[in-house]
Amino acid sequence: MKVSKHFINFNKQFIFGEVGSMISAPVAGYIASTFFSSPDVISALIVAGAAIGGLVPGIGMRIYDQIKVEKVSKKQFLQDAAYLYPIASLLIFTIYYPSLFFLSRYFISHGYTAIGYVIGSQIVSYAIFLSSLNLYRYLLLKFTGRNL
Fold it and tell me: Where are the domains of the chain?
């Protein structure tokens, strides 16, 4: 099976966003755990840290890849965004953030260290999210011919 450049760039953009989340979520978790003891509050602040840290790098990489590298027109970029971001947002809010919250809460309740529970829950949550997003990308390509 040949892996296309579009597939690599698509995943790279989301992985780049996750790197931002991997930096900001543990920081948010560490800071939250110094002020709060409730697993619910700490987990909610971890989710907020992941959201803030992942948004800008991920979108920035997508803009760079599509407009600067692939020379996609701004109109085409916006059309692709209309197919991608609503579904990505839906998956983030229905899969990624809830699993990040509940896994973080589980790890906190079972005595894992602050950095360990944040990174562990992010890895599992992100793997589920990225798999779901790639399934959407595959189905979109198969049924409409649109390549994101």
Answer: 5-144
